[in-house]
Design a protein that fits this description.
The protein has helices at about 1-20, 35-60, 65-85, 90-115, 120-144. With about 140 residues, the chain is mostly helical. Helix 1 (about 1-20) packs antiparallel against helix 2 (about 35-60), helix 2 runs antiparallel to helix 3 and helix 3 packs antiparallel against helix 4. The longest helix has 26 residues, at about 35-60. The termini are far apart.
């Protein structure tokens, strides 16, 4: 079952949810009070790509050490929250926040699974993966 969950995550989550978040605009020093959509996407682009890379390495650990992987995923979620706090564009902030919330639910589900794989509700875990994928696609569509 662990390998199946890791495969589901690896196949859809890493490739779809985060790696497609591209920037659209020019990076600047300090973020203006009200960012354009392009500026907001640029502000979170580097962190989103970093999260994608970190996530990919943790997905491979899920099959062998799910508790350690979920601890790392909690750190990734904290990084997402910090990155989103830099965004002032309402449209991008709303979508990025939706993505982070769905990712937080996924981390919670993975933590439950890691604590007791035999009694974990894998359908809830799969639903959480689907939600992260959906929110990631929306983020990719928004930021191009």
């Amino acid at each position: 079952m662990r390998k199946r969950i890791a495969a589901v995550l690896a196949a859809g989550l890493v490739l779809t949810a985060l790696s497609g978040c591209a920037s659209g605009g020019h990076a600047s020093g300090a973020a203006p009070k009200q960012q354009t959509k392009a500026q907001a996407c640029t502000a979170i682009d580097g962190d989103m790509k970093s999260v994608a890379s970190d996530l990919e390495s943790q997905v491979s650990k899920l099959a062998t050490d799910p508790k350690a992987a979920t601890t790392e995923l909690q750190g990734i979620d904290a990084t997402l929250k910090t990155s989103i706090s830099k965004v002032t564009n309402p449209e991008v902030k709303e979508q990025a926040t939706s993505f982070e919330k769905s990712f937080g639910v996924l981390v919670t589900q993975l933590s439950s699974y890691a604590s007791n794989p035999e009694s974990a509700d894998t359908s809830q875990l799969e639903d959480a993966v689907t939600q992260v994928e959906d929110q990631g696609k929306k983020m990719t569509t928004l930021c191009g």
